[in-house]
Design a protein that fits this description.
- Strand 4 (145-151), helix 4 and strand 5 form a beta-alpha-beta unit.
- The chain is an alpha/beta fold.
- It has helices at residues 6-69, 119-130, 132-141, 157-169, and strands at 87-93, 96-101, 110-113, 145-151, 171-175.
- A five-stranded mixed β-sheet has the order 3-2-1-4-5.
- 56% of the residues lie in helices and 16% in strands.
- The protein is rod-shaped and about 130 Å long.
Length: 176
């Protein structure tokens, strides 16, 4: 048997130590890279969540501003059951108004005539009957409804009469 010298043994031990240290450095690098990659994915997820929350905060801030001023449109409520316009009132003549709910066909339109000489009362009744569910929703949720008013006459007087009736029902008329 040949004995190694003290120097050879030490060099052999140092090379083993260097190999073990290299292996530990590689393992540490893999672990650090894995942690870095996981933190990058977490950061991307948090950035997406931050954008969604900022959009929601902006929406809620708008709602708070509307509440502070006391005017909240029903169509902006989160449940989304009320359309932008709940319907259309068309004034084709001096004594006739057509009431059409949003989403109905023209064939489903209700025509209100001046039968008893009181178009305003007949129109008020027709609006309250046709939009009863929407008016109830608005009262329960403290919001307002919008209705389009279209004047097909050459006179402003019939349009003004219809708008006054709509205002009394609590619906906001919007001219087209």
């Amino acid at each position: 048997m040949k004995h190694r010298s003290h120097t050879e043994t030490m060099l052999f031990s140092l090379s083993e130590l260097a190999f073990v240290l290299l292996l530990l450095a590689i393992i540490a690098g893999v672990v650090i890279f894995g942690q870095w990659r996981a933190s990058e994915l977490r950061a991307a997820g948090l950035a997406e969540r931050k954008e969604a929350l900022e959009a929601e905060v902006d929406f809620l801030q708008d709602q708070l501003e509307e509440l502070a001023m006391g005017n909240v449109p029903c169509w902006r409520r989160p449940d989304g059951t009320i359309p932008f316009f709940i319907g259309t009132l068309t004034v084709p003549g001096e004594q006739t108004v057509t009431v059409l709910r949003q989403g109905d066909d023209e064939a489903d339109a209700r025509v209100v005539n001046d039968a008893d000489g009181d178009l305003e009362a007949a129109l008020n009744t027709a609006i309250r009957h046709e939009f009863a569910q929407d008016l109830q929703y608005a009262a329960e949720n403290r919001c307002y409804l919008r209705i389009a008013v279209r004047n097909l006459t050459d006179s402003f007087a019939p349009y003004r009469r219809v708008v006054e009736v709509v205002n009394r029902t609590g619906i906001v008329p919007v001219g087209e």
